[in-house]
Specification:
277 residues; mainly alpha; 3-stranded antiparallel beta sheet; globular
């Protein structure tokens, strides 16, 4: 393993499918050769230089907060369809959960609704590897991150996390399967927000729908997008019935659970899992 020192000010790490994050850490280890391939800017005394790092597998040694995110859709063009679908549905879940979380407010709503719109228009194309789809998803996932990183998420993520831990279920796949069911569960605590989710996802006529109609329309739009990109519809091939108590308790204890718009319990989360089996 080769140790590389980037500079006194600059640190960088790659996240497959998410671009490169630039931070202020000083040292990284990499199993691949380190080679700066393109210098984008150099700010001298005013801030760190910015570079693109070749290769993957860089491990950060510091807990420093990144200061720049370089999001390049060309880097995502080699992602397999399944990975594109899963990470895209994860980004949609970020946007929808961030929009309805207890901590949501006007500024975060602005980010989340725009992210829902961009992702809904772009994910199918990204799975087909069109340049427009890749570029849209690069932007959409970033805009969603700008929102939820400030207000938190909900129990879709709480329920998805232990599935990854116990069964190695891809995080985005778990989110996509769980999202429509939790949206139905949370609906009574979301006011009129599902009307705007449905509209952002391309549903026509939401202004003339009843509350029940636009809530169903929002859930159905999520289901259709998930199906279109090849995500399974349930947890039947994933969850073992004897694991449900552990999964429910783990989800309840998860850091995302308090942000859920509807207060919940271990017992109710267990029923949500069972409804997907």
């Amino acid at each position: 393993m080769q140790k590389v020192a980037l500079s006194k000010e600059l640190g960088a790490t790659t996240y497959p499918g998410r671009g490169i994050v630039i931070g202020r850490s000083t040292e990284y280890y990499t199993s691949q050769s380190y080679r700066p391939t393109q210098k984008l800017s150099e700010s001298g005394k005013t801030g760190p230089a910015t570079v693109i790092i070749s290769g993957i597998g860089l491990g950060m040694l510091s807990t420093a907060i990144p200061v720049v995110a370089v999001v390049d859709p060309d880097m995502m063009s080699t992602m397999p369809k399944g990975l594109t679908a899963a990470t895209g549905m994860d980004a949609l879940t970020h946007a929808i959960e961030g929009y309805i979380t207890k901590g949501a407010w006007a500024l975060s709503d602005m980010f989340h609704l725009k992210a829902i719109e961009i992702i809904s228009k772009s994910l199918r194309g990204a799975v087909d590897n069109t340049p427009e789809g890749r570029e849209g998803m690069a932007l959409g996932q970033y805009v969603a991150g700008m929102g939820f990183s400030n207000v938190g998420l909900g129990i879709v993520h709480s329920m998805a996390h232990p599935l990854g831990a116990l069964y190695d279920t891809p995080h985005g796949v778990a989110n996509a399967i769980i999202l429509p069911t939790v949206m139905e569960y949370n609906a009574p605590a979301t006011g009129d927000k599902y009307k705007y989710i449905a509209a952002a996802m391309g549903v026509d006529g939401t202004e003339n729908m009843t509350v029940d109609e636009y809530r169903k329309a929002a859930v159905d739009a999520v289901k259709k997008l998930s199906k279109d990109v090849g995500i399974p519809a349930d947890l039947k091939e994933i969850v073992k019935p004897e694991d449900v108590p552990f999964l429910a308790q783990s989800a309840y204890d998860d850091a995302c659970r308090p942000g859920n718009p509807r207060d919940t319990s271990v017992e109710e989360i267990a029923e949500l899992y069972k409804s997907l089996m």
